[in-house]
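Support request from a user on the community tier.

User writes: "When I paste my structure tokens into the form, the page sometimes reloads and wipes my input. The last time it worked, I copied everything first. Here is what I submitted, just in case something in the input itself triggers the reload:"
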């Protein structure tokens, strides 16, 4: 493998196409979250299989300036919605973003990997908040190339934490 996966496991609930894609775009671009909640409710059993009271969910951090402009943090909102349906806890302070990077959606696949190479770090002031979690999950809304998950999980792995990756939806390549 050119880029060995730093995470033990990667799970996604849906394929990013059709009504799932539209629900996510409505949520991210229009602030309409009814479709997202419907998707999570429909996947309730799967969420309970993946996450339990010993799960710690860490949202993929976004640049602070972008979060201020958007007025919300989609990955953190997703973590909250998942923990409400399945137990577990979330913490948005353990994994942090370093610097400002271009939006991944504006870049080619190869450029996405280069863009995030040094984008994530563990906030050592908050590392103790991992506590007794048996499973640590990095959570994002959409996984396309896997670059974001790779580098976010790699930052955690460097500290010795075993980590898993979860996305609401995943882009698949057409063959």
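"...and here is what came back when it finally went through:"
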């Amino acid at each position: 493998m050119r880029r060995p996966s730093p995470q033990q496991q990667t799970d996604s609930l849906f394929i990013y196409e059709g009504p799932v894609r539209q629900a996510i775009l409505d949520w991210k671009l229009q602030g309409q979250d009814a479709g997202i909640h419907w998707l999570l409710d429909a996947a309730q059993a799967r969420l309970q299989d993946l996450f339990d009271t010993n799960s710690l969910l860490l949202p993929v951090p976004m640049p602070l300036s972008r979060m201020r402009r958007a007025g919300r943090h989609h990955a953190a909102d997703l973590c909250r919605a998942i923990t409400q349906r399945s137990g577990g806890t979330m913490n948005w302070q353990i994994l942090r973003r370093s610097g400002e990077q271009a939006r991944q959606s504006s870049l080619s696949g190869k450029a996405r990997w280069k863009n995030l190479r040094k984008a994530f770090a563990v906030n050592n002031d908050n590392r103790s908040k991992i506590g007794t979690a048996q499973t640590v999950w990095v959570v994002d809304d959409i996984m396309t190339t896997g670059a974001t998950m790779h580098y976010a999980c790699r930052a955690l792995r460097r500290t010795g934490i075993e980590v898993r990756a979860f996305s609401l939806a995943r882009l698949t390549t057409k063959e």
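Agent notes: The reload is a front-end session timeout and is unrelated to the input. The two ends are 20 Å apart (CA to CA). Residues 7 and 164 are 5 Å apart (CA to CA). Escalated to web team.
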